[in-house]
């Protein structure tokens, strides 16, 4: 039993040294990072990280009380696209697009951790 707990503790300590956990992002339309006039929304990841250390961030999906009307609930899908497609706001090759986060359960408390 002692060996089992030692391994678990070592894994937890090892995991905590890999990169930085960046601040969570509430992914909803009321978050100021989504305003078009906001120019202060860039988060640098893996800055000065040694090789094989990756930063993580949690995307917090919108959550609503049970009595909220469905029309007022936000749901989202977040895709990873090539930078050129992002810059042009146009998908050139659908095979290069990858769904990475699905926020489709607005009555549940959910988040998705992304590792960069």
TrEMBL record:
Q: Which GO terms describe its molecular function?
A: ephrin receptor binding
Q: Which Gene3D superfamilies match?
A: Cupredoxins - blue copper proteins
Q: Name one GO biological process term.
A: axon guidance
* InterPro entries per the UniProt record, alphabetical: Cupredoxin, Ephrin, Ephrin_RBD
Keyword annotations:
Disulfide bond, Glycoprotein, Membrane, Signal
Q: Which family does it belong to?
A: Belongs to the ephrin family.
Name it. Answer: Ephrin RBD domain-containing protein
What taxonomic lineage is listed for the species of origin? Eukaryota, Metazoa, Ecdysozoa, Arthropoda, Chelicerata
């Amino acid at each position: 039993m002692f060996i089992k707990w030692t391994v678990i503790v070592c894994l937890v300590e090892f995991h905590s040294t890999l990169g930085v956990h960046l601040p969570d992002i509430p992914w909803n339309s009321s978050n100021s990072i989504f305003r078009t006039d906001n120019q202060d929304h860039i988060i640098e990841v893996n800055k000065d990280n040694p090789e094989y250390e990756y930063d993580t961030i949690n995307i917090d999906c919108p959550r609503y009380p049970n009595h909220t009307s469905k029309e007022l609930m936000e749901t989202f899908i977040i895709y990873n696209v090539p930078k050129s497609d992002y810059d042009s706001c146009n998908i050139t090759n659908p095979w290069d697009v990858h769904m990475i986060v699905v926020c489709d359960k607005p009555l549940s408390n959910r988040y998705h951790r992304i590792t960069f």
